[in-house]
Design goal:
alpha/beta, globular, 11 helices, 26% strand, homodimer, 328 residues
Chain lengths: 328, 328
């Protein structure tokens, strides 16, 4: 057995804790430390023996770590931390602000190249596994159409938007694909949908004392960008119900490509995820891509990469020979 | 626009004809010739202007062709043709005898390496897209189980086996996944199935005149390896019904990985295909991998490769920059 791949984790929110768990499920990796902006002694790792360090310790630890998994957020953390750390370590992150990926990619590519490091950006499931399936579907069926459906799932961004409405004490928002739309796509039709025809939005809201339910509902369903283009239902519940029934971070969805290989023959490809824990699954994707990143770096592949650049075999714990013999 | 990738086709059965159609769906490839063991003038290409050549012309055409797509069968054609042609051309094939893949891979690797050519072996959907999803599922959810279901679909090998039974004038065999088994797997359970519990086999048989239906049925359902481990139904139909209702080469199936990222959280990944034409879809996969093979060769990647070695981005007609900006 080769040496285990030495992993460091930056950040200890849902994603960082998921990475701790995911490393525990592998046979070829070990966690060498968690790095945090908080006072290290306030953080409780899953395994009490995992050392916890401050961020300031990172530059002195470049020889201890093969791949650093960046578990910060895309808005505040990664744009600043990423480029700093990409010049010191091989990194993997889940940067997920789709529109800013080219800019983030460039900001990681330059320092990683200069330091002969490898930075795998925007891993996860969307961006990530869904993106892979979007481009594979298009490559295999160029005469076709691609549909991405999200849900049933709890959307963090939309839940936050509801929580910012005056009069709301607590809330969650679920995104649900509309079954009739899914059925049409699965049949091989290539329908053109309005936003409203593809997904529903369903809110569970706890009101502040004295808040006007109708006003809150109206403020939510007409909220530009977040809700106005959807059919949105708002259900008022108690704080107890919110705590009891709506804590699971379920999510998922599917990418469907339907296309024709000839006038007569329609073909349908579907990739779907049903996730009981959105952050834990994302963490598992990060850990698999950490293995690939370690290998890419060993192959002399320096700079920034995305999931589009990673051959499937590089994600596996098995050797190429074993994969060909057992799993092709 | 760059020069189009110049493709040659070897063999003009269902697969070769599918490749002709699939090239017509791309913007970056052109078909330069079809090569056949038959007298070239007896072959009718889809596009009357496509030149048809004998196999003996191939060695003189190495400068005309960027990638040669081998559309022969795995039993007789590829083991002989493949190693001969891999020393002359970049090649793609759909070698699908799972147990003999390592041996075939080695027989393609040596001549391709020696000639600085690239040979992509065993592309298609199984082996191929299903194989990719089996290893990705395992890499993302190492604590889990993988299930491959085939069907509803027409199985060529099993149809042939039925046709060899004395008294059978014509036949097709459909493989169907058992819904109860699929549902259990989708729920995140990790059941252990017997062969019989996962798939049904359904035969439609035309009897020869005077043949004994009961004897034929018994010979089919007890046939070792092909049918004895399954619940098999045999339906007797007329030659007219066979010709009218059972010509479509439908197939498909799904690969499901279910696993736990923690004790509490089960995650389910599913990749599915619903194919109206099995050979046309396989052909489309071959054509997408021909693009990747051309690029691998240009990158100096010589020798034999499988779908496990090909990064998703290499299959796309789009540039890496465009993919990152539009589809991540």
């Amino acid at each position: 057995m080769a040496e285990k791949i030495r992993i460091g984790i930056v950040g200890h929110g849902n994603l960082g804790r998921g990475v701790e768990r995911a490393i525990g499920k592998t046979a070829d990796m070990r966690l060498v430390g968690i790095y945090t902006r908080r006072p290290p002694e306030t953080l409780t790792p899953l395994d009490a023996e995992t050392p916890v360090f401050g961020m300031a310790d990172l530059p002195a630890h470049t020889d201890r770590i093969d791949v650093l998994i960046l578990c910060g957020g895309s808005k505040e953390d990664l744009p600043k931390q990423g480029p700093e750390l990409a010049g010191l370590f091989n990194t993997v992150d889940s940067f997920d602000t789709h529109a800013r990926i080219p800019e983030y990619f460039a900001s990681m590519d330059a320092p990683a190249r200069a330091a002969q490091r490898t930075a795998l950006v925007s891993a996860g499931w969307d961006p990530g596994m869904f993106s892979i399936n979007r481009i594979l579907g298009e490559a295999l069926l160029p005469d076709g159409a691609t549909y991405t459906f999200w849900g049933d799932g709890l959307s963090q961004g939309h839940s936050d938007a509801v929580r910012r409405v005056p009069g709301v004490a607590g809330a969650v928002q679920y995104t649900r694909p509309i079954k009739a739309a899914v059925d049409r796509v699965r049949s091989g039709e290539r329908p053109v949908f309005t936003t409203r025809e593809q997904h529903l939005r369903e809110c569970y809201v706890v009101l502040e004392e004295g808040a006007d339910a109708d006003k809150v509902r109206e403020a939510i369903v007409t909220m530009p960008h977040y809700f106005d283009a959807y059919d949105t239902t708002v259900n008022f519940i108690t704080a107890e119900e919110l705590a009891r029934d709506h804590q699971a971070m379920v999510h998922g969805g599917f990418v469907i490509r339907s296309g024709n290989t000839s006038d007569e023959n329609t073909q349908v490809i579907e990739y779907g995820l049903r996730l009981n824990s959105n952050p834990e699954f994302t963490s598992s994707v990060l850990v698999a891509y950490a293995r690939a990143t370690h290998r890419l770096n060993a192959m002399g592949q320096h700079g920034a990469f995305t999931v589009f650049d990673v051959a499937p075999g590089l994600l596996s714990q098995k050797s190429p020979e074993q994969l060909r013999a057992e799993q092709l």
